[in-house]
Amino acid sequence: MEEKLIQRLESAVARLESLSIGSQSRDIDVDAIAASTDPSIIAFDEFLTEYVGKVTSAAAKIGGQVQDASNVVHEAFSVQKELLVKIKQTKKPDMVGLGEFLKPLNEKIMKAISMTEGRRSDFFNHLKAVAESLTALAWIAYTGKDCGMSMPIAHVEESWQAAEFYNNKVLVEYRNKDSNHVEWARALKELYVPGLRNYVKSHYPLGPVWSATGSAVSAAPKAPAPPKAPAPPPPPPASLFSPESSQPSSSRPKEGMAAVFQEISSKPVTSGLRKVTDDMKTKNRADRAGFVSAGEKEVRASVPSVSKVGPPKFELQMGRKWVVENQIGKKDLLIDQCDSKQTVYIFGCKDSVLQIKGKVNNITVDKCTKVGVVFTDVVAACEIVNCNSVEVQCQGTAPTISVDNSAGCQLYLSKDSLEASITTAKSSEINVLVPASGPDNDLVEHALPQQYIHSYKNGQFVTTPVSHSGG
């Protein structure tokens, strides 16, 4: 009898527990559904479809890095929508909890910023416009007038003003070249002004509204203290939503040189010094004789100097830019399938010769040594930057030739390119060879001046090149 009673009690308890769990899950589901169907969330969905969709569709026509950056924009706005839904189910956290809550959005912004780092790409202005504009999404971190940031609407406008500088560069560069880039730049501006600005103005003019009865934000668990090391690594860059940025400077520990001077001043001057005995003095040490053995010379001579050189490249990128990089000892490089809309970029080559048959838009020779370039025609300019001992020959026309921060440059001009404008800056040993006027068609060499005299006359400085004459 007692066993049956116990079994009945256990089954009753199990049913009560299952009913309790089911009611809790139903409450959670109801809260989530209510939050996702809130008018502000529905309006954000419509905003994403209208404005973010324009940016991604325009980027798809361009492809490459522009499309990758635009995908990050879509990801960041999607994360903001998820956070807006969670805010309606979460109590207002403290600064530490807010930083942890906004961590997914911060990661997307940092991802966009990392795309602008490293070697400057052809779409640097596109990437920079995206990275600067995404900081507008930080309006969601506004918690009041004492939080140290502008009101949400003002923050969106200020963030776009920083990004508009690079966005305007895209508009100017591609206004008469490619309408797809112009469409993308205009769509990006409309995304923030008026898009995001009007959305925030309509639904969150005073910042996000947190739930009064929702769950609390759980802070990230603290990592165990690391073991003592002789030199701790430098601190990582501060997060966009780092709570430490709100602390007054007096309450934060000193860093950098301030910490060094504080440590020095807190210790006796002679602490840490060691007494030097007679056997430690240089004059008494047997291993400090004033000669180098032959074996040591051989060891030193056998260690070659290693310079970092990237992989060689010789390719046409996206049908617009010929890239010739890190070619060493190649005397037969040839570009013959080119047109007037393409550019040629030569970087890090040594002891090589490149011939360009046909008309191209622009030629840039950067950080090359003992390199020869022969081209037919160029529409814009031929630029020589950071080079040593290079020879450039123009067989057709070139309106502009510029030499910057280079030493040892030989320019060969044809009869059709004698009207070229040659600009030099911080360069030396520049010689220009032009055809002679006689019937022999010999080349006449002219040395461009690299020394100047600046004289103050009649209220202004007059600059004239130094002329050397010898008897």
UniProtKB/TrEMBL annotation:
Q: Name one GO biological process term.
A: actin filament organization
Annotated C-CAP/cofactor C-like domain residues: 311-448
Q: Where is the composition biased (Pro residues)?
A: 223-238
Q: Which PROSITE patterns match?
A: C_CAP_COFACTOR_C, CAP_1
- Protein name per its UniProtKB record: Adenylyl cyclase-associated protein
The GO cellular component terms are: cytoplasm
Instruction: Name one molecular function that GO assigns to this entry.
Output: actin binding
Q: Which PANTHER family match?
A: ADENYLYL CYCLASE-ASSOCIATED PROTEIN
Q: Where do the segments described as Disordered lie?
A: 218-256
- A Pfam family of the record is CAP_C
**Which family is annotated?**
Belongs to the CAP family.
Task: List compositional bias (Low complexity) regions by residue number.
Answer: 239-251
